[in-house]
Design goal:
By secondary structure, this protein is mainly α. It has one domain (1-72). It has 1 helix and no strands. The termini are far apart.
Length: 73
């Protein structure tokens, strides 16, 4: 009976440790999810910023080409 009680105590300790590890893992997963959401938002803003920058450059090049064509003609 004493062996069974000792085994059960060890098992309960293992279950408690496992529960603690799962709780820590859940917290880490939540933090990772929050970081991923923030990264996604930042990436979208950066993509939009460079899209506009590229568009402005294309418009400027188009205007310069048009001016050169008008000067040539």
């Amino acid at each position: 009976v004493i062996k069974v009680v000792d085994i059960m105590r060890v098992n309960v300790d293992k279950v408690l440790e496992r529960d603690q590890k799962l709780s820590e893992l859940d917290d880490r997963a939540d933090a990772l999810q929050a970081g991923a959401s923030q990264f996604e938002t930042s990436a979208a803003k950066l993509k939009r910023k460079y899209w506009w920058k590229n568009l402005k450059m294309m418009i400027i090049l188009g205007v310069i080409c048009a001016i050169v064509l008008i000067i040539i003609i």
